Amino acid sequence: MKNIKKFDLEGKKVIIRCDLNVPMSNGVITNDFRIIKSLETIKYAVSKNAKVIILSHLGRIKKEEDKAKNSLKPVAKRLGELLGRKVLFAGETRGRHTKALVRNLKDGEILMLENTRYEDLDGNKESNCDMELAKYWASLGDIFIDDAFGAAHRKAASNYGIAKLLPNGIGMLMDKEIKMLSKVLKTPETPFVVILGGSKVSDKITLTEELVKKADYLLITGAMAFTFLKAAGFNIGDSLYEKEYVEYCVELLSEYSDKIILPIDIVLADDMSKPKEIITKFVNEIPEGYIGLDMGPSTLKVFKQYLEDAKTIFWNGPAGYFENPDFALGTEKLAQIITNTKATTIAGGGDTAAALSAMGYADKFSHVSTGGGASTEYLEGKTLPALEVLNEKNS
């Protein structure tokens, strides 16, 4: 794959596919982490006097009413604020107005098109990689740069389709994502410690199997820990677990008993949404009627012993129900421990990135992946269509 720095961008129309799929509430961006991560490539293209055309998706568009709440207009405004320059906004995905804006773009100017998934209202043209749509978008530019790692596992018209048609390469963010995640997958410096959290074992079977073979230690946390604790013979009260995966966890614990480290205490509540009582108990003392929602302080001390000697740390999945401040402490303290080590620290997964960004730890990690599903699939060893086509076009 060819890095953007290998191209002569002077006066060229450069289409940059970004992942600006940011959380929104009533038209207001609640977390601009992905916009910030996209700045380096955009700034570079502007500095080389390219005419920059930005494409991105935002949310899912299933019906006409979805368009208003998923417009990229607030994103274009925020991008302009972060860049300190005007970002033109087309207000449509294609049409005569878009053609005119592209035709009139001056060197160093930036134009953002409307949400590419607006095209999904007419036969899922974006998500199903309609090549006529891809040809239209490709006709707007001279060079295509894919910097949207978060969409790399999708075969869409705005990434895979355009890359089939134009000279292409990757941006700085995509380049860093590949290098850092490849470090985890292929050449982690040891001791290599992996932390897996989040809600379900079933969502991370392939990832777990891939990483447990490479890791020196696998620390299990989050809601998925309760399926493991059930497999280890503990009473877990009313904590959520996956009954059909208990036997799978029994087998993992048996095969990797020297590597897999489970929580030893849990923060519990009598109700998940409106708790009247919050208690902390060791895993052999969990009472009926309580649900586990965070890791306890003793577990943090145990995890710290493994983390402080690590040379490479990879974290996927929060330690608890971090969206509720009552159960966010485990995730925050874990981030604090990790960022105080001398290890190469990498985090992946959408919820993990959101938690670290909200808590102010994202910039303290060596790398926080912008790709949720994409980072998981990459680490599972799966082929990502958007990366495959970039290699194909340049081979």
What brief labels describe this structure?
17 strands, 2 domains, six-stranded parallel β-sheet, about 400 residues, Rossmann fold, alpha/beta
Structure description:
This protein is an alpha/beta fold and 395 residues long. The chain has 2 domains: 4-175, 3-Layer(aba) Sandwich (Rossmann fold), CATH 3.40.50.1260; 188-377, Rossmann fold. Helix content is 36%, strand content 16%. The protein contains 15 helices and 17 strands. A 6-stranded parallel sheet has the order 5-6-4-1-7-8, with helices on both faces. A 6-stranded parallel sheet has the order 11-10-9-15-16-17, sandwiched between helices. A 3-stranded antiparallel sheet has the order 13-12-14. Helix 9 packs across helix 10 and helix 11 (297-307) runs parallel beside helix 12. The relative contact order is 0.12.
Strand content: 15-25%
Largest sheet: 6 strands, parallel
CATH architecture of the largest domain: 3-Layer(aba) Sandwich
How does the helix and strand content classify structurally? alpha/beta
Shape: elongated
Number of strands: 17
> Spans with pLDDT under 50 lasting ≥5 residues?
none
CATH class of the largest domain: Alpha Beta
The total number of structural domains is 2
- The residue fraction in helices comes out at 25-40%
Radius of gyration: 23 Å
CATH homologous group name of the largest domain: Phosphoglycerate kinase, N-terminal domain
Fold-level CATH name of the largest domain: Rossmann fold
**End-to-end separation:** 9 Å
In round numbers, the mean pLDDT is 95
Strand order of the largest sheet: 5-6-4-1-7-8
Number of H/I helices: 15
